[in-house]
């Protein structure tokens, strides 16, 4: 079977697979290494008091909850995702964190947003663009619905840089590639944004990169492997037994304190001209 990015085809997954992705999104949001990257750009967002914020591909709503918790946020946040299961989960988490008065969620396709032009002050795509069918169309829609002078934020991994250490370097490289091919429709898209954003009528205001690196211990890459190794096996990208050996060695390295994995992430903040 060919590899199929689970977030792109999320509506074809069964209940158990959806619950695993809900758990992954929530554990990732709590993970110190990853939460820092979100806090970095949320802290730089200039939010007017009545800011209207849209997140496309909001998943379980972790990004918007973090904005809604800000002391200076008194506006409204709206999350759109293609997956009804995630939207239900997002509503539940927002209620239990008592931020549901400031956030709403709805089902929708990022390629065809259902909002008039220039509706929002800020539009965010947080680890969405690497998964979508047509990244340029999604960026075009984000640009259309942000007001002139408003901010578009695109945050995602440069997954072509993802790597886990493995003693057999050749097989290790094959696993890195298989994990990326099984999980991301657009693993290199973040390298294209300096060229694409101006074509869409966006002026780059700020951009930076962060390496997510775990050495010795692992939390972020532990959950990444637990979540996505099954998709490598399911797609038959590498022999199942060899993947099990690889995964067991990663678990052992985490226990022994000899683990290493890394991936680069980039944040772009741009203004609509
Ligand atoms: C990796 S998750 C990120 C979720 C959330 N932004 C976060 O960081 O916690 C990617 C999300 O994009 C959603 N998605 C993928 N393609 C989409 C599309 N065309 N329209 C709307 N949502 C989409 C998936 O359903 C999934 O919830």
Brief synopsis:
With 273 residues, this protein is an alpha/beta fold.
List the helices and strands and how they pair.
Layout: H1 15-30, H2 32-44, E1 52-56, H3 62-68, E2 76-81, H4 84-96, E3 103-107, E4 120-126, H5 135-145, E5 146-164, H6 169-183, H7 193-199, E6 202-216, H8 220-234, H9 240-256, E7 259-272
Parallel strand pairs: 1-2, 1-4, 2-3, 4-5
Antiparallel strand pairs: 5-7, 6-7
Helix pairs in contact: 1-8, 6-8, 8-9
Bound molecules: S-adenosylmethionine.
Tag the structure with descriptive keywords:
binds S-adenosylmethionine, single chain, alpha/beta, globular, 273 residues
In percent terms, what proportion of residues is strand? 25-35%
Number of helices: 9
Tally of individual domains:
1
- What compounds are bound to the protein? S-adenosylmethionine
CATH superfamily membership? Vaccinia Virus protein VP39
Describe this structure as you would to a colleague.
The chain is built from 9 helices and 7 strands, in the order ααβαβαββαβααβααβ. It is α/β, with parallel strands linked by helices. It has a single domain, classed as Rossmann fold. The chain has a 7-stranded mixed β-sheet with strand order 3-2-1-4-5-7-6, with helices on both faces. α1 packs antiparallel against α8, α6 crosses α8 and α8 runs antiparallel to α9. The longest helix has 17 residues. It is globular and about 55 Å long. The model has no long low-confidence stretch (mean pLDDT 96). It binds S-adenosylmethionine. The site of S-adenosylmethionine has 22 residues, from α1 and α3.
